[in-house]
Amino acid sequence: MGPSEMESFIRKMPKAELHLHIEGTLEPELMFALARRNKVQLRFKNIEEIRKAYRFKDLQSFLDIYYEGAGVLIEERDFFDLTWAYLERAAKENVRHAEIFFDPQAHTERGVSFETVITGMRRALEDAPAKLGISAKLIMCFLRHLSAASAMETLGRSLPFKKWIAAVGLDSSEMGHPPKKFAEVFRQARAEGFLAVAHAGEEGPPEYIWQALDVLGVSRVDHGVRCLEDPALVQRLVKDRIPLTVCPLSNVKLRAFQSLKDHNLKRLLEAGLCATVNSDDPAYFGGYITENMLQAQTALGLTRAEVAALTRNALEASFLSPEQKRSLLNGQ
Ligand code: ADE
Ligand code: ZN
Q: What is the rounded CA–CA span in Å between residue 259 and residue 251?
């Protein structure tokens, strides 16, 4: 298969996106438009200045700018516009299903209500199947740099909207905030019927992945790329077929890997892991899901079979019903 055939194979492939922070899809153009609409003062004068600020040395240096950008999101329609813009873009890339993270505490901490955030996103999700041919679910993430008590309060606020939320997750600054800090929150969330996922092994050690599995009871691990440092952990992930939502461009931008050629995605597949490719925060990292797949394929020399496996893995790893998975797989 030549390079242009591979490119068109990747572009046309029906896709599922499982690791996408809606706040991380805020493109500079929309950031400016919302700042103007809501009369929020940005410290950037223009779009070039914003793009220049997007040079990160690690996860924390990115998160500082990501939370700052989210400050323009205030009204329900802002959350609708943000979500709709992502879904339109994803549909054009043949994404048929997306499981979307949101960070309620990034908004409630600024005085925006939980209801405002979720209602805006939900309206966009409801319109998407008929208008764009894409289905979507929401995953509510707790910010791990905040306290377990704050996460517990957020869980309480989410309960009236439980039917709109598929799972809980854990994100933000990983180092120094191990999954076990949130053991009780996840226990209660799972008792309420939420599925669970967690960012682990992005910057943090394999031990954090063990905790995500054994203490939080996650059914997927977000990133998880550091698992290869621990053969017993790999064995466990393979045996239980625990998916990893890998984000290649993010990992390079945040310096988990020096370059895409150094990324371990191909080795994850060779180890028999259920790895998937995702975009994380595409407005900040320079590429949506197709770009992640295209660049990873080129840099790592992924075969057609490996590329196809990545998409099959994503469908398998999704929280869709077996029937929905089957019908998406058959459309492939
Ligand atoms: N929040 C948004 N993107 C994130 C990432 N890659 N890791 C942790 N928290 C995040
Ligand atoms: Zn993430």
A: 9
- Give per-residue pLDDT as tens, 173-190: 999 999 999 999 999 999
- The confidence score (pLDDT) of residue 313 equals 98
pLDDT at 332 over 60: no
Does the beta carbon of 24 lie inside 6 Å of ligand 1? yes
Q: Is the pTM of this model over 0.90?
A: yes
What lies within 8 Å, CB to CB, of 9 at 6+ separation is: 1, 304, 307
Q: Is the pLDDT of residue 107 over 60?
A: yes
| Burial of 188: CB neighbours in 10 Å, binned 0-12, 13-18, 19+ | middle
Parallel/antiparallel/unpaired status of strands 95-102 and 15-21: parallel
Give CA–CA dist 266/303, Å, rounded: 10
Domains and CATH numbers, the chain: 3-329 (3.20.20.140)
Evaluate the CA torsion angle 29, 33, 38, 43 in order and state its sign.
Answer: positive
Answer yes or no: is pLDDT of 207 > 90. yes
Alpha helices in 133-229 (DSSP H): 148-158, 183-191, 206-214
Q: Which of ligand 1's atoms lies nearest the C-alpha of 174?
A: 8
The rounded Å distance from CA 252 to ligand 2 centre is 13
Distance (Å, whole) CA 189 – CA 212? 14
For a substitution probing ligand 1, which of 64, 143, 199 has the most ligand atoms within 8 Å of its CB? 199
